[in-house]
Amino acid sequence: MVDLLEVSGLTKRFGGLVAVNNVSFSVREKEILSVIGPNGAGKSTLFKLISSFLRPTSGEVRLKGERISNLAPHIAARKGVVRTFQETTIFKNMSVRDNVIIAHHLRSRANLFGFFLGTVAAKADEAAFGQSADDILALLGLASLAGETARNLPHGHLRALGIAIGLATNPSILLLDEPFAGMNHDETMRMVSMVRRLRDLGLTILLVEHDMPAVMKISDRVVVLNFGQKIAEGTPPEIQANDKVIDAYLGS
Ligand code: ADP
Ligand code: MG
């Protein structure tokens, strides 16, 4: 399998605190890779580094070999590293469908941009996850709610809309920040199966998550952080049997 995203020696200091400490791993094409770890392990910081919302103190992130770690977040997004949209960036007074269509327009601008630059990445992105707005809504279980005003959506569906908006921008890799946070069991299971379906359609997914059982169900591979360092990497069964991981979670 091809490595799509490479994280090498990534480090972020906040004053004397090393929130992310020399972390390296790769995300392979068409896999679901999850980053887990106890509170304060550095997950959110790592997520912000990968999505270019924070600059690393040292180390780098590469997408298809191209360094993205010093780009502005919107440029990294155009290159295909797309994080899901939080509730605050959903247009609440607009319909579910219009939210996705607007994101589609942003995508075509991104494609135009890449087209004029003639970059290899832009050409590869065009072939990546080209789904129509209606296909995307159907994939995320939102087809019957397409005409609904976004603000009327229940929590789980609003979260799905955040993913739909991200998908409409045609990502190479989709970053999900705690996709199961605040969800009940049924919502979590629905989200697990939706994300797996996206992976089966060829999307690459990196998620940062707290909910261990859901992570073990959804992931192809798992990276575990503790105190900013990577302490383990492997398949869910390997991670569940790893003594360092068990100690880190029991100690938290
Ligand atoms: P997690 O998401 O795994 O709970 P975080 O990445 O949020 O962990 O935090 C890792 C460590 O970095 C924590 O000790 C946290 O207090 C610290 N930290 C995170 N963001 C900042 C910041 N902007 N300034 C200072 N310290 C921070
Ligand atoms: Mg966090």
From TrEMBL:
Signal peptide: none annotated. SUPFAM superfamilies: P-loop containing nucleoside triphosphate hydrolases. It comes from Mesorhizobium metallidurans STM 2683. One of its GO terms (biological process) is L-isoleucine import across plasma membrane. GO terms for molecular function: ATP binding; ATP hydrolysis activity; L-isoleucine transmembrane transporter activity; L-phenylalanine transmembrane transporter activity; L-valine transmembrane transporter activity. It comes from the Bacteria. It holds the Pfam family BCA_ABC_TP_C. GO terms for cellular component: plasma membrane. This is Leucine/isoleucine/valine transporter subunit ATP-binding component of ABC superfamily. Residues 5-252 form the ABC transporter domain. Keywords: ATP-binding, Nucleotide-binding, Transport.
